[in-house]
Amino acid sequence: MNAISLFGQSIRRVEDARFLKGEGRYVDDLAQPGALHAVFLRSPHAHARLLALDVTAARAAPGVRLVLTGAMLAEAGIGGLPCSSVLAAETPLVKPDHPPLALDRVRHVGEAVACVVAETAHQAEDAAELILAEYDMLPAVTDHDAALAPGAPTLHEQAPGNLAFLWHKGDRAAVEAAFAGAAHVVEADIPNPRVTCAPIEPRAAVAVPEATRLSLIVNGQNVHSMRGQLCAAMKLPPEALHLVVPDVGGGFGVKNVAFPEHVCLLHAARELSAPVRWTARIGEDYAASAHGRGLHGRGRLALDAEGRFLALDFDGVAEMGAYLSANGPHCPTNAAATAMGGVYAIPAIHMTVRGAFTNTAPMEAYRGAGKPEANYIIETLIEHAARAMGQDAAALRARNMIGEFPYRSALGMELRDGNFAARLTECAALADRAGFPARRAASEAQGKRRGFGLTAFLETARGAFGEWAKLSVDAEGGVTLAIGTQSNGQGHETSFPQYVAHQLDLPMERIGYIQADTDLVAFGNGHGGARSLHMGGEAMRQAAHNLLAEARGRAARLLQTAPESLHYAGGRFALADGASVTLAELAAEEPPLEGEARHALDLCTFPNGAHAAEVEVDPETGECTLCAYTAVDDYGRLLNPMLALGQVQGGVVQGIGQALLEAIRYDAESGQLLTAGLMDYCLPRASDLPALDISLREDAPTEANGLGVKGTGQAGCIAAPQAVMAAIRDAVGAEITMPATPEKLWAALHGR
Predict the structure, then answer these.
(1) Rounded CA gap, 461 and 524, in Å?
(2) CB 466 within 8 A of CB 602
(3) Beta-bridge partners for 596
(4) At what angle do helices 371-389 and 715-732 cross, to 10 degrees?
(5) Strand 511-514 to strand 479-483: parallel, antiparallel, or no bridges (unpaired)?
(6) What is the DSSP string of 654-695?
């Protein structure tokens, strides 16, 4: 294939061949001779004092090699898992200790209390059942508002009133002045329920002792950050811990961070001088990993007499769970603020967010991490405003969309590109909004209620800033790419070599790929925040430039000419007289031949678009059918349109699931998890979905990187909830909160 055409080509994923043939290698597939198996005893209570823990019988059980308790880890000098979030908060962020195994108290159902290591998993499970734990039950609180109310049970003494932080951003005085002079004000309670990431592969890891260090084979998304968290807990220098990641069956944020189980496995492997492995059961992941979203509050929107937005205010509470996960406090605050206000020109914005400790699993980033919540807030308020003012919601949106760039938002984000109004117009046309009245009439003739929703979204994609890449040429002319970003299903093994081949004018087959190994990758921020091609692509671009510059200089010396007189194509530097030298020859002559780049790019890109959903609701049952879904999105230049489309489709389906089906539920009195697995937690199935009509536009490439690309990984999840919910509200004529279950819809339609 001509490399000139590689950028923009829909090349099929090369990694799919092994996945489809069952040749993928996930953590649980990797043999480790002599490996022992770990099982965790978990708290059955949401809140209790741990009075005693008798592990005598478990230690004597067949095959058992070690039983770990929180006290043993503390005696070994192992501390709690760190929270890396930094907030410029009105009250300082309270970071309680998060021990890998409970010490004197448990604070949520599923918290690990002991770790049993045995020769087989069955032996470890049997022994765990022999552990006698004595608890003194304490009152539990699982609701965020109840946790902050006077008299609520206190989870951590250093957090009076269960307040993890009080954070605000924006000009409060300007917002209040705008509301005082507004012709129209709408306000609404806007909950974003707690959900789970539900990757198809549960968490898993194998800890391996080596001569002078420990290794952890783990299904993570960010090896360098995870290593830092584990080293902090275990008081180890970075060189004492090696992390490597094989194939990963989905992450969506929950696999970005270290967990208590990882600490226990590493310590057990060190104590026993043997590999120790663990794979979570589904119930363990639902109860004891981390959840996402969970931002609830009251939003207000001020408008003038012509329907122009004057100010936006949000006062909310963010669920933090029993402990602070690494990125948990960042998501509803710093991250959400970047997208608050969406694609609209709003002169004044203010946010207030309080973090609440509750007797529930910790909160962590989930695909979008604050941006879905922010977009849902403004889009929901616009729907309220349109109904209150008797205006067309699409016209109200178009009237207020940002149209001139650069544009600095009221919360400080500088948007540099976009064509927001065009996306809205195109989406309305492709979704046949004009033909909707006829379709609604046809549904009503059959006793059904039909609704149409057309909304917009803005993503602020970057994730952690800065990235690294290195290209190495061997004597056969093969090129190996090592890079600090990380795939957990996105197709990097295809798209990244595709881009390197494009840059070096070589066949893709000559490009090797290395990721997710702290021995082979010098630096990186992994995956998260739709950053991989924005950050990693720029690192690859610079590394390719540096490689060719080094190779050109060597070729000029060998051919005794000036570097600028050489022509490069197809892996060969040539002179006009035909004399030439290849990259392979240069690498053989003077190894190594490499190009390396590490940048500190901190600019965001701004994926955006408009999405339309059409639903039909059966008043007799409350069943909601998603009849059609249309999207027109801008992701800048598209390296591989097919892979970009796949990313958007996956995100849209997760957003649809959040709107219609998904919510983590705890019993308010006991704190028991009611949605503890796939029998209780409903995920969207193929039969729940229509064909997704998604169009991608490239008319607004970004200047934030040298490729012109914007992140695609999170956008669908950010865009879908408000589109589906707008259609449902249009169908039932009442306010509905997520998830819009048949029970809720039936009650709304029957005035219950």
Answers:
(1) 17
(2) yes
(3) 470
(4) 30
(5) parallel
(6) HHHHHHHT----B-TTT--BS--STTTSPPP-GGG---EEEE
Average of pLDDT values for 262-290? 97
| Short-list 648, 536, 93, CA closest to 334 | 93
Strand pairing class (692-697; 624-634): parallel
Compute CA distances 356 → 141, 319, 320, 528, whole Å: 10, 5, 6, 24
Task: Please list, in sequence order, all residues whose beta carbon lies within 8 angstroms of the beta carbon of residue 226, skipping any fewer than 6 positions away.
Answer: 218, 220, 243, 256, 257, 258, 262
Is residue 448 within 8 Å of residue 622, measured between CB atoms?
no
- b/e burial code for range 676-690 (CB count within 10 A of at least 16 → b): beeeebbebeeebee
Per residue in 564-592, pLDDT (tens digit) is 999 999 999 999 999 999 999 999 999 99
Check residue 4 and give its pLDDT. 52
Look up residue 85 and give its two tokens: 């979030």
Overall pTM > 0.85: yes
Residue with tokens 């005085």: 173
| Residues 458/335, Cβ–Cβ less than 8 Å | no
Quick: pLDDT tens for 127-151.
999 999 999 999 999 999 999 999 9
pLDDT digits (tens, 9 = 90+) for 308-319: 999 999 999 999
In sequence order, the β-bridge partners of residue 632 are 610, 695
Report the relative pairing of strands 291-303 and 184-196 from DSSP bridges: antiparallel
pLDDT for residue 534 is more than 60? yes
For tokens 């269960």, name the residue: 162
User: How far from chain centre, in Å, is Cα 244?
Assistant: 20
The pLDDT of residue 91 is: 86
